[in-house]
Amino acid sequence: MPFDNPLALAGLVSVIPLILLYLLRPKPLQVQVPSLMFLMDIKEEKKRFYTSITKLIKDPLFLIQLLVLILLAMAAASPFLETQEALSGEHTVLIIDASASMQTDSRFSDAIAKAEDYVSKKNSIILAESTPVTVLEGEGSQATYDTLDILEAKATVADLSSAISAGMRLLSDEGGNLIVISDFTNWNGDDPVNAMKLAESYGLTVQFIIVGNDADNVGFIQGSIEAVDGSYTYTGVVKNYRNSRQVVNVDIENLDNGKTNTVSLNIPARSTKQLMLTNLGTGITEVRLTDDDSLMVDNTAYISIPKVSDRQLLYVTDVENLPSQVALSLIPTINLKQLDGIPDDLSKYSIVVIANKERALASNEISSLNSYFNNGGRAVFIASEALSAENAKTELQELLPVIPESVEDADNGVTLEVVQETRLSEDIKYEEVAMYQFLNVTGRIDSTTLVATEEKVPVLAYHSVGDGTVVYFGINDVTGENAWNNFHNLPEYPVFWFKLAGWLGGTGSVQDYNLRTGTISALAKEQDIETPSGTETVTRVLYDQSGVYQVAGKEIAVNLYNDRESDTTLEGDDVIERSQANDGPEIVRASSYTAKNYLDIYMIIIVFILVILELLIIRKRGEL
After folding, report:
1. Is the distance from CB of 530 to CB of 247 less than 8 angstroms?
2. Distance from CA of residue 316 to its chain's centroid?
3. In this structure, are residues 126 and 166 in contact, taking their beta carbons and an 8 Å threshold?
4. Sign of CA dihedral 531, 533, 534, 538
5. What is the largest CA-CA distance in the chain?
6. In angstroms, how far is CA 138 from the centroid of its own chain?
7. Which of 142, 166, 99 is nearest to 564 (CA)?
8. Are the C-beta atoms of 450 and 422 separated by less than 8 Å?
9. pLDDT band at residue 620, thresholds of 50, 70 and 90?
10. Residue 219's pLDDT band (boundaries 50, 70, 90)?
11. pTM strictly above 0.70
């Protein structure tokens, strides 16, 4: 008999204490009767060895308790029997296209109505967005109807192929039906027909249902922001998908200062027109096409310009004129103050950089940092001897996103690689950094590593402490003969510090505040964010709506900007035709699957029956 958890059979060792308990328990007091003493003495020696074992085996309580222990240990090991079961059609996976084009007229509501016709005994629902979103798994009909009632189309481009693959995984054991409902006008990823054929080859029933009709539309299909002469300029592109020239009125409003403006665009049929806005103010600016059409999600462009203010940065070091200090002092929006120690009050500093090379931080300095982090402070620790395990205090090591060990030499150099692509890796050639000495560290479970060595030693990592953020930068910036590396000599060095200060200080590249739908970003910890439709608590943000998101104190403008998704004249009939074509080789479909029939529940039932039987025996003996 196979087991899913064979290690649990170690619980059978528990029968040994049970046997010893019965063998060693006190015997009942026997009173010897003189008239029988002679007969008892004759048989005493012969039966001495067998008496205890015989009583043990004949005691029903011992047998019951022995069986209970054996059954419990085997149940914990999850025994099962494998059988071949016929594929079932009871489980239906409804894949609903939730892309931006599904907001055209009544396409999404029509998709919901059609999905209700396919609800079965067991159902799952997957929304096809830029990444598949499973909103219901293995539920009954009523739960399915309730879920369908609250679904809404998003503003991304659907990856139908990935959604079908996700549905295949849900049906991989018992089989079932895949119902794909979409307008089939545009998608990311592989051709959905190829995914359909693959699913059918595994014995699944796949059906494509098309919704939607040709419609008229005018909308934003592109948008970019650039810094020009100390101010920001927005360039947007509006496309007219209609077959006639359109005069489009555009309202422009800055939601922070209330300034408004109106312009008109004369756009020929099936053509585009550029819209340029200069000297944009900080905050959110809405650019709206005033005329309604069949697709409203692309009628408004959102622009976010971060509020830039002077930031106080504390630079703590025991060495003068380090490259990192020079790079930070050149950033115009930063007021840098250098100290040789950490003061008790850090509340006025938005960023603290600790660049001590030899002096380890004292307990009172660590306590000050701890309070600073709990109140939302942000700090960068630069690797050095002072952070090694033998020098840094335990309470300081606990604040770091890495566990420091010792300083290592690398005569042949250490190669760096980007672990996660972020704006801290854009335009920075980490592969050109030559490291000949480094602090050997191990990343903590709750930390995020952005750059590491080929041996997976974190070089750039961060995590949350309280409401604050702590960054570890493993590239020491000592110069001269004692230099650990050459990063400070590369032209990307000041760029890195500009990006890091902007990231920690809440500002930085304006592109980080203006995203396209479908973008995904990871947060340092679970937190509340404001989406265009409400508040969510997440660790990962999927920007699947057009509008303004409030994430970690930033106002992020999110727009569709997709020509094909805005083209409501496209039709998906060719996809339906290809899905119904029988032009490939004959597909041999599976008719059964290997099912695991677990026996642990039956063993637990037997244990309950034995326990009840034990209580009845004890009661009959008068011991209860």
Report:
1. no
2. 35
3. yes
4. negative
5. 128
6. 22
7. 99
8. yes
9. confident
10. very high
11. no
